[in-house]
Amino acid sequence: MSQYITDTTQLKCDKGASRTPLTVTSQSFMSIDGKLQATEEDKQPNINIKPFGVCSILRSSCTPSPIKWDNTSDFEIEGKKELLDNSTCQCSVGGEISVVNISQNFVEE
User: Fold this and answer.
1) Under 8 Å CB-to-CB from 24, ≥6 apart: which residues?
2) Which residues, other chains included, contact 74 with Cβ-Cβ below 8 Å and sequence gap of 6+?
3) Which tens digits make up the pLDDT trace of 28-41?
4) 21, 51, 61, 91 - which has most CB atoms within 10 Å?
5) How far is CA 9 from CA 5, 18, 38, in A?
6) Which domains does the chain have, with CATH numbers?
7) 10 falls in which pLDDT band (50, 70, 90)?
8) Over 50: is that where the pLDDT of 108 sits?
9) Of 101, 74, 109, nearest to 11 (Cα)?
10) Beta strands in 23-101, from DSSP E residues, in sequence order
């Protein structure tokens, strides 16, 4: 089952050298485990998604250039679809951004 992602969830680009945390700025009231829930609007370079180190395509700093999040939830927050742990975002340079580790803690009962 897919899980919703939140602020500080680790992202990677398949063309980048390092991971980076997602910064949620698209909404300010829906949270899970005390962290804001991410939406499809959390895709601004250097604001929501920081650089991924060296880009294997450009051979220089891997500054993200996100186009659109895919595989989003059917549910919305203020008209913006929620992001899931299997959501991906194409970069206009040629890479694909995906979730590495979700940042929330679930208790199994």
Assistant:
1) 6, 7, 35, 36, 37, 38, 39, 42, 48
2) 81
3) 999 998 999 999 99
4) 91
5) 6, 14, 9
6) 1-104 (2.60.200)
7) very high
8) no
9) 101
10) 31-32, 35-36, 66-70, 76-77, 80-81, 88-91, 96-101
